Model the fold of this input.
Amino acid sequence: MQTHVGLVRHTNQDAVGAEVEGGLFVVCDGMGGAAAGELAAHMAVQIFLREAHRGGPDRGSVIANAALVANREVYAYAQDNPRLRGMGTTLVALSVGVNVPAKANTIPLAITHIGDSRCYRFRGSTLELLTEDHSLVGEQVRLGEMSEEEAAASPMRNVITRAVGTAAEVEADLLRAEGLEGDVYLLASDGLTRDLSEKEIAELLELNDASLETAAEKLVQAANDAGGGDNTTVVLVRVGF
Done:
């Protein structure tokens, strides 16, 4: 895990958390002035891990519900503190199955997200985006009204359509997947993907495949070398039996 304030921002409003033994990983990217975004992100990480730790037979439902609880509690806190109203955060989280039988060929995974922080899968030498940005330009791309290149350059790319804590209720997307031995999953705030192309990210992952810690450091450094226009947070998780 790596997080960096970048070269332009004065504070880091990203937050990251993990419960490695439980196979839980989460990244949040806060928004709001007067440190409200930083608070929202850190609150969401703590609440998410607390709720997801409770467990249950369906890990996907557990982590999606944990994201919704984080939304309710962050929103309620802001309502009780007028100077914080409007604060919010993105959230992307990964649950990796633990105690998987040795004879299994795959490992069950679940991903939940709200906002435009992303989850990618790096398998072999191919990087695949698994989440869909909850953003204005993301929706326009999916509708065919804008290209990926136009979206990357759009002045509206900061406008997200879902966030944790900005409304009493929010919808959390949930994806279930089967991980293969050696798969690497990348959780990242948009500071990474705004400054680096997916091709550049894949090349850095391939070059530093032996060490995920080094790969995370290289990704953050590359984002800063490309301008460091935002906070950048990276979590890399390798699937293994």
Notes: The CA atoms of residues 74 and 238 lie 31 Å apart. The chain has a mean pLDDT of 92. The longest strand covers residues 24-31.
